[in-house]
Structure formats: C-alpha cells, structure tokens
Design a protein that fits this description.
The complex is a heterotrimer of chains A (265), B (386) and C (334).
Chain A (H helix, E strand, L loop, with lengths): L1 E6 L1 E3 L5 E2 L6 E2 L5 E3 L1 H17 L2 E7 L5 H9 L4 E5 L9 H19 L4 E5 L10 H9 L3 E11 L2 E7 L3 E7 L3 E5 L11 H9 L4 E2 L19 E6 L8 E3 L4 H14 L4
Helix pairs in contact in A: 2-5, 3-4
Chain B lengths: L6 H18 L3 H7 L4 H9 L18 H14 L2 H7 L1 H12 L2 H12 L4 E4 L15 E5 L2 E12 L6 E7 L9 E7 L5 E6 L10 E12 L3 E2 L5 H37 L1 E2 L2 E2 L4 H29 L5 H26 L10 H8 L9 H13 L9
Parallel strand pairs in B: 1-4
Antiparallel strand pairs in B: 2-3, 3-7, 4-5, 5-8, 6-7, 9-10
Helix pairs in contact in B: 1-4, 4-5, 4-8, 4-9, 6-7, 6-8, 8-9, 8-10, 8-11, 9-10, 10-11, 10-12
Chain C lengths: L8 E8 L2 E2 L1 H17 L3 E7 L3 H9 L4 E6 L8 H15 L3 E5 L4 H12 L3 E5 L1 E4 L6 E7 L4 E6 L6 E5 L16 E4 L12 E7 L12 E5 L9 H11 L2 E4 L1 H5 L20 E5 L5 H7 L4 E6 L6 H4 L2 E4 L2 H16 L1
Parallel strand pairs in C: 1-3, 1-5, 3-4, 4-11, 5-10, 6-10, 13-14, 13-15, 15-16, 16-17
Antiparallel strand pairs in C: 1-2, 7-8, 8-9
Helix pairs in contact in C: 3-4, 5-9
Classes of the chains: A alpha/beta (265), B alpha+beta (386), C alpha/beta (334).
C-alpha cells in the first residue's frame, strides 16, 4: 500500500490557559504537538502498512518548524515526509488548505505513484472544523470515509469501521480513497530510539508554490471563501448555585426542589 | 542548572519521560507491593529500544553513547521506576563483558537473545564473597570440550527471568582474582538452576535471585576471553557501566525533591505554606545542591567513557557520592512530608527504600573509599594531577 | 456583491431509514428567524426513503417548502449519493444559504458539497445571525477546544453554508395548522458514481447511546472510580429517563465504551439537563457539553473547574448523592 498521512502541527490545546484578567488565550509557552487525531490516523496507517507492506509518507503544511511534527511521525513508523511551506499558503481556510494539499498530492503522486489511501485525522484540535479531509477527497475526486476507527484491506478494497450513532458501520470503499480517523480503540505506538535517530538524520524536503503546479489565487486568504470577522474568548459562568448541606440526602432533596421549582425536571 | 543537551538528546529525554509517565508510572505501585518484575511492561520497553541502547548497531542495538544512555535512563528512572530499569536493563549490562572480551560469534549469539527481547543476568557475587571478589568459590573445572561449574551465586539481578547468564567462576582458587574466568551460560544448560528469590527492601520491581551450579556443563566455546581474564573483564565492565548504575540515584533523588517541593508549596501549616519556613526551604536547597553535584559527576563520568577515558578512581568517587547523596536526599524528602512521608499512600517512602541499595551494591561505599584512598596514597604530591 | 438568482434558506434534514434526525427540525428554528429577516423562504431538503412523514413534520416545525428526494439508494446515508443529490438540487434552485446538522453525516456531506461548489462552509456552529449591512450570515463557532469563539462570514460566494451543532437550537412545538409545498424531485444518480457501500451495521448491543438526541445525560468521570461505579450513574440516568455519558478519563481507563464519551474527542451534546458526576471539568470536556441548558455538577472537590460552568452544584461524594437524587426524583414524581 502506498499511503499518505496528512498531519497538522497544532498547539496542545490541553495546555492552553485563559488569562483571568484579560480573558484571552495565553499562547506563549504552549507546546506544539502533532494533532491528536492525526496521530491516530498514522497508527491506523502503520497497522495497514505492517500487515500489507508498503510505504507511509507524511504531508504537512505549515512553517519551517512544522518539520518537527514530521520528525515525530517518522519516530513512530512513518517512512518519509514532505513539508509544504509558502507565504502564499498562509491564512488558508479549509477550502484553500484542501486545494493546496490536493495539488501537492498530485505532484507527489507524479513521483511516488498513486496513494492508495490518504489518511487524515477527523479534525484538528485547534480549528476543530473536520472539513479538510472531505474537501481534499472532493478536490481529488476520490471516495471518502469519515470518522473511521479502524481500517482493513480486504481483496484490494478498504473495509472501514465508521462510527455511527448507534454503534458503527462497516463500509467498503475502493482505492484510491481518503479516510478521516477518530480515536482508535488502540493506543498509538510509542516512539522508538531507532525511529528518533532516523528522524533526526532524515532530510525533510520542503515544497513551495514554485515547486508544483498550483494556482496561487486559490490559496491563502484570497482563495478562502470564509473570512474570520472576529474572535473572542467566551464568557465564563461563575453563577453556580452551590449546595453543600450537612449530608447527602439533604443536598439531594434541596437540589430536586430547586429543579422542580425552576421546571427543569 | 541549565545543561546544553543537543536537540537529539532533548528529544530522546522527552521521549523517555513520556514513555515512563505513560507506560511505567501507573503500574509501579502495584508491583512494588507485590515485589515482582512486571513482565507485561517489558514488551513495550523493549520495542521502544530501551533494552539495547549501548549495544552497537552492527549487533542490532541502538549504538548510543554512554552519555545518551545516561540521559535517557535518568528520565526513565525519575518518572518511572529505577527497580524496573535494574532488571529491564540487565540484559545489555550483562552483555557488555561479552562485548569487551568475547568473540564475534559470542557477541552475535548473546546479542540475538537481547535484541529479540530476552533477558540476561550478570553474576559475580556469592554468599561469602561480595566486594571481596578474589574469594569466590564457584569453580569451573575443564573436562574435554566442557567446563564443569559448581557453586552458588546470590543477589543476581534478573536471575529468575534471564535466558542467558554472564557468570564468573574460578578455574584455580589459589590464583585469587587471576583465576577468575568469565562464561556465558544459557538458561537451559543442565546443572544450572535458579534458587530463592530475594524479598527486598527496595527496587522491588527488579528480580533478584540465587543461582545454583550443580555439575553444570558449559561448552568451552562459551568461555568469554581466556582463563583468568574474568576479573579484568568484570572490572572493565564496571568502569564502563558506572554512570548507568549511578544515574538511578540521581533519578530517585530528583523525583524525591520534586515530590517534596510540590508538597512544601501546597501544604499549609500555621497559615502559610511549608516552604516559607526557612528550615524547610534550606533543606530543599541542600537536597538540590547534592543532587545537582551528583548529576554532574555522572554526566562527566559518562562523557569520559564516550571519549575512551576509563578511570576507576573517578568511577568510585561518582558511585560513592551518588550512593550517599540519594539516601540523604530521600530521608529528607520523607522528613518534609512528615507523617505522610511515612505513609505508603505517598510516594517518598518508596523512594527512600529504593535509595538504600546505591551505597551497597556494585561495591559497598566502604570498599569504594578503600579504592579511592589507596589511589590517593600512591599519588605523587608534586605532580600536577592529571 | 450581489448574488443574482440566489435566494432562500435551506435546511438539510438528514434521515436514516425514513426517520429524520432531530437536529434537522432544530435547525428550522434559527432558519425560520433568518429567512424572515432576509425575506427568504425556509426550505427543508429531505433526502431518504419513505420520507413523506418527515416532510410533513418539517412544515409543522416551520418550513415553507419541503423538497424531497425519495429513493432506495438514500435509505441509509451514502456520501456520494447524498452529495450528488444535493449538488443537483443546489444547481437547480440556487439557495442563498444551506444549513446542515453537525452530525457525522452532516460533516461528511457538507464539505464534499461545499468543495464541489467552491464555496465556504463554517463548521460546527453554535450561533447564527445576519450581518444587517451585507446580508451575510454571521456564523459563530468555537475553536481551540472551546477556548476561543470565532465569527465567520462568507462574503463572496453562494450558497453560504454551515454545519450547526445538534442541541444548540430547540425545535418549535409542531403546528399542525401550518401548510406548505412539498416538492418531489427525482434525482437520478448513476450507480457507478456510488463508490462506498455499507456492508454491515453494528449496533453496540448493550444499549443505544444516542447522546445527540438525549434530553437528559448523566455523565461519570474519574471520580466514579471504576467500571462498577457506573452502576450508580446508570441508575440515575434510568430513573430520569436519560442516557449515560462519560468523560475521557473514564473512557481511557476502560470503565465504559468510547460511544459514551462527551467532549472534544467524543460527542458534543446539548441536552436539557446534563449531570456531571465526579468530572473535574477539563476544558476538553466542557467543549462537549457547555451548550447544555442546565448543568448540574456533583463533585467532592469544591474547587473543581466544573463548578464554574455548572448552574447547580452539589459538593459531596457522588456515591452518596447520586442514589439520593434518584430517590428524591421518584418521590417527586410519585
């Protein structure tokens, strides 16, 4: 299997704190990590590769320091990686981002052959849109399966376990395809010393807009149909009715009385 | 202190820390109570490469230098469990004598065991021979293409789980250390059996047993180096493994300091945090001073080894300082925790139990002082110390 | 910028075996308000099989018109079938705005369609408004795990599209007196264009975990202490007629399946009542439940962050409090 995994370097949103005075995000000192769901996508990809043979290429778009994310992927089983970096790509919304990725995929396929599967995380934990995967599939004109928690290859087709409201569906999907991944039942593998050493030595090529065929008017802010009008930090609550009676029965009775009075229950 | 780790070293440390927090820390308490080596934790540990760090790449190892290995072990111990590391890391430390004195074939055979996730144990100590290695009584008598071993070993780290052993026995007791010979012995060799398992005070995740040789027939091809070379090999091995042995003390001490510091900042007495009492603050400062000094000694010792400088006297100094330091620091950590420090619910009593061994094993701190003072006696006071 | 020929506000109503997802009807509420302000018709677009009843209900809940596409291939959700049908309809009618429920399927089809149209789609919105000056929809959505809110607009392309989080808006009481057009559209999709196929559908048999549509959710976290601790949570959920949820800590510990997880790596929910038991209130969890109407927290730690978000809080041991809450509720109903 010739596999591509798209990853994004994101701030670790679990480490983000709110400045209590200004009520704004404190971004300084927040570590950058490989988007959690992309990590799950890579683990599924690695399992597919380990079982069926093949190669895993990592593709990421971002500034030079995003190479660190690629190296982290190399330490947990990816074979090689490519960085997409150009000022023209900055400020892209999901449509523009997926366009750039789709052009890069086509370019890489010219050299590496068609990717049987392009894996993405279901969403990035900073933007939380979950749209780049399906839009990439649409740009490439390939079938997609979203919200996958496992993938197997059966008779050259993908069998994807896809989350549904009641449980899950097993979906068959021909290749080439795009699959977006939720949290897997298994934990992603730990990085190995060998992987770290190899990642440390690896040269990560950077592709700029000049390196492949791309219409830069469709990239970046200009190529983005959605515009951010403003951002703000949501107001915090702080109006809790706290009940702390002398024992649990009294607390429970007090709460139920309040909920009943307020016609909540 | 700010250390100038390379980017790779930083990443390896971060990786080791993450691993320890995720794969070791949640489990060690349970195994400390049971006094058992957690085999189920070992598989992931091995897969990540932590069991083969110093084995050269051509034998399938990671080929890391001594300092890299120390930096990684420091994190694994500080955030994981040093007892676990003692048994889990026993494989490559037991293989080192073979790398030092063995043939290509022997290194390959030993490496195959370790690389595939097997265990190994190094065995020198006997019931009547601890620091006094010259008096070992386990004998190896040549019989055609075999040596026949008889005797009893004790305090063998990983003795009960090893697939292969590095064993020192004497071919001629009258020759003292010059009779000591090194053998590599597979677990299933007839005449070799595992004796009782020690129920230890600390490092309770490590497996420690007796080994019994009863007419154990070892092929002559398993002799590592020449007859009588065993002691030299063992000493060379010790020179090389000092930093890896001693960094565990730094890990334990730093873990104890971190716990104590956190507690001293959170715990309030007489209306203010503990740490705002100078008596407590200065204790913490002294603990960090000692620990930082020890860390620097270990790092320097490891750097020397990476440069090919093997200095037994310095090794003894490092070992002794670390062994004394970790006990002092952990005793004080328990003191800062007060009654809670004495409770098994809190982490520091375990660290104090784990600490004690560092002044005992690999040559008690008393014997180290003999080594150091003897070297001092020989010193030419007029010469510039090299 | 003027968008010649684009008009009306569409709500895509997702169906499964003829049954509409609740979020579709919910979106008719803000859809109605926005359409009225813009002078547009509110159109429910329903794709599925045997969906006549769903179309009638959409009108009762506020739609002026229902466009229905009925066919075997739409019985269960299929990315290609639904996107192709939507594209054909959008091409024909040129809606100004399209709303999807931010369910797994809504977030699967939405970007597929938006990309084909090269238009903007705003994900997982929790607020909708119209910019009085430009007439653009102002889409409000959380990012950074709920730490940041962003207001987005799509000024230069049409249709403007967004997916909207379930549970944020409440459906109106059905009004049987309302009348509207039901337009049947026959969209023929070439079977060769349908590339994926559901080969098996597994219901997690133990219980249906329909967090999306639950009105009451009782969730357990680290404080529940173990799988057996969820018995107390389940008892209260059953008593209140609710569904059991869980925090990531409880799921990661293996105490309860992932299907129950609420939060950034689980489901985003918006029930009428959310009872968080032994959940400290990590931002990732809050991101998934802060849209609930009433949040009740039970926690031993009076300083737990969950109390900053809760409307009611009991400081105490959940194993003492929870059974007594169930008891009090039974007494109240008796």
């Amino acid at each position: 299997m010739n596999i591509l995994v798209c990853v994004k370097q994101v701030p670790d949103t679990t480490e983000i704190k709110i400045d209590p005075v200004t009520n704004t995000l404190i971004r300084e000192g927040v570590p950058s990590i490989v988007n959690t769901f992309d990590g799950y996508a890579l683990e599924i990809a690695a399992r597919v590769r380990d079982k069926n043979g093949g190669t895993i290429t990592i593709l990421t778009m971002g500034p030079e320091q995003a190479k660190k994310a690629i190296k982290e992927c190399l330490a947990v089983g990816a074979d090689k990686g490519v960085l997409l970096s150009d000022r023209a790509f900055g400020g892209s919304d999901t449509l523009a981002t997926s366009y750039v990725l789709s052009r890069a995929v086509r370019h890489l396929e010219g050299r590496l052959g068609c990717f049987d599967v392009v894996f993405c995380g279901k969403q990035a934990i900073d933007g939380d849109t979950g749209q780049v995967g399906p839009e990439l599939a649409a740009h490439l004109g390939r079938p997609q399966v979203t919200y996958a928690s496992d993938v197997e290859v059966v008779d050259g087709e993908l069998r994807v376990k896809r989350e549904s409201d009641e449980g899950y569906d097993i979906i068959s999907c021909p290749t080439p395809a795009v699959v977006t991944v939720v949290k897997t039942a298994y934990e992603p593998r730990n990085p190995t010393i060998k992987g770290k050493l190899a990642a440390n030595r690896a040269e990560i090529p950077t592709l700029t807009a000049a390196d492949f065929e791309i219409d830069t008017s469709l990239c970046g802010l200009n190529g983005s149909p959605t515009k951010v009008k403003k951002t703000y930090t949501p107001a915090r609550g702080g109006k809790v009715v706290k009940i702390q009676e002398s024992d649990a029965s009294k607390s429970a009775a007090a709460l139920m009385a309040m909920l009943s009075d307020a016609k909540i229950l | 202190m700010k250390y100038q780790y390379t980017e790779l070293q930083q990443e390896l440390r971060q990786m080791a820390k993450d691993f320890a927090i995720k794969e070791i820390a949640p489990y060690f308490k349970e195994y400390d109570v049971k006094g058992e080596f957690p085999r189920e934790l070992f598989e992931k540990y091995h897969e990540a490469g932590y069991t083969t760090m110093m084995i050269p790449e051509e034998y399938g190892g990671q080929g890391l230098g001594c300092l890299d290995c120390v930096l990684i072990n420091e994190m694994l111990g500080q955030y994981g469990d040093v007892g676990f590391l003692a048994s889990a890391g026993s494989g490559e430390l037991s293989m080192m004598p073979v790398i030092i004195g063995g043939t290509q074939d022997q290194i390959q055979r030993y490496g195959d065991v370790i690389i595939t996730g097997g265990h190994a144990a190094f065995s020198l100590t006997e019931p009547d021979s601890g620091s006094d290695a010259a008096s070992i009584r386990t004998t190896a008598v040549r019989d055609g293409d075999y040596y026949v071993l008889n005797g009893r070993k004790c305090f063998v780290t990983s003795g009960g789980i090893a697939d292969i052993y590095t064993v020192l026995a004497t071919v001629d007791r009258s020759k003292g250390t010059r009779g000591i010979t090194c053998f590599m012995i597979e677990r299933d060799t007839p005449g070799l059996s595992v004796g009782k398992e020690e129920d230890k005070m600390g490092l309770r995740l490590s497996n420690t047993t007796d080994l019994i040789f009863d007419n154990c027939r070892v092929p002559a091809a398993n002799r590592v180096g020449d007859e009588g070379m065993g002691f030299k090999i063992a000493m060379k091995n010790l020179d090389r493994s000092r930093p890896v042995g001693s960094i565990g003390a730094v890990s334990i001490a730093q873990a104890a300091i971190d716990h104590a510091l956190k507690y001293a900042k959170e715990r309030k007495t007489f209306g203010k945090p503990l740490i705002e009492n100078q008596a407590i603050a200065f204790m913490l400062a002294d603990m960090q001073i000692q620990c930082e000094a020890a860390r620097n000694l270990v790092y320097r010792c490891a750097e020397n080894i990476d440069k090919g400088i093997y200095d037994s006297e310095f090794g003894s100094i490092v070992k002794t300082f670390c062994g004394d330091m970790v006990m002092d620091v952990t005793v004080n950590a328990v003191q800062i925790f007060g009654g809670y420090g004495y409770s098994r619910e809190y982490p520091v009593e375990k660290l104090m139990r784990d600490a004690k061994i560092f002044a005992i094993f690999e040559g008690a701190n008393q014997i180290q002082r003999i080594v150091i003072s003897r070297a001092m006696m020989k010193r030419d006071l007029n010469a510039l110390k090299d | 910028m003027s968008f010649e020929g684009y008009r009306d506000l569409w709500v895509f109503i997702e169906t499964h075996r003829g049954q509409a997802k609740s979020v579709g009807y919910e979106l008719l509420t803000p859809g109605r308000a926005l359409a009225d302000r813009a002078g547009y018709k509110l159109v429910a677009v329903i794709i599925g099989k045997n969906i006549g009843a769903a179309a009638a209900r959409a009108i009762e809940h506020g739609a002026d018109t229902a466009i229905v596409v009925d066919g075997d291939i739409y019985d269960v959700y299929n990315t290609d079938a639904v996107s192709l049908a939507l594209l054909a309809l959008i091409d024909k009618y040129k809606p100004d705005t399209v709303l999807f429920g931010a369910t797994n399927n809504g977030r699967d089809a939405g970007p597929r369609v938006a990309c084909a149209l090269k238009t903007g789609l705003t994900a997982d919105c929790t607020g909708l408004d119209i910019d009085a000056e430009t007439g653009n929809i102002l889409w409000t959505r959380p990012a950074f795990g709920g730490n940041l809110m962003a207001q987005i607009q799509c000024p230069d392309t049409r249709p403007q599209m967004g997916t909207v989080r379930p549970g944020v808006f409440k459906k109106t009481a059905p009004d049987a007196a309302r009348s509207g057009n039901v337009i049947s559209e026959d969209v023929s999709v070439d079977p060769a264009q349908i590339r994926t196929r559901v080969v098996d559908s597994i219901r997690e048999v133990a219980e249906a975990v329909n967090l999306d549509e639950a009105e009451i959710i009782v969730s357990g976290g680290r404080g529940v202490g173990g799988p057996e601790g969820f018995a107390a949570i389940r008892l209260l959920a059953d008593t209140l007629g609710g569904v059991v949820g869980a925090s990531r800590a409880a799921v990661d510990a293996g105490w309860i399946p992932h299907a129950h997880q609420v939060g950034q790596t689980g489901k985003t929910v918006g029930p009428k009542v959310y009872i968080a038991c032994g959940i400290s209130g990590a931002i990732q969890h809050l991101a998934g439940m802060s849209g609930s109407d009433t949040i009740i927290a039970v926690n031993r730690d009076p300083d737990a962050p969950i109390f900053e978000f809760a409307h009611y809080g009991i400081v105490g041991d959940l194993f003492e409090v929870i059974p007594r809450l169930a008891e009090e509720y039974r007494k109240m109903k008796a």
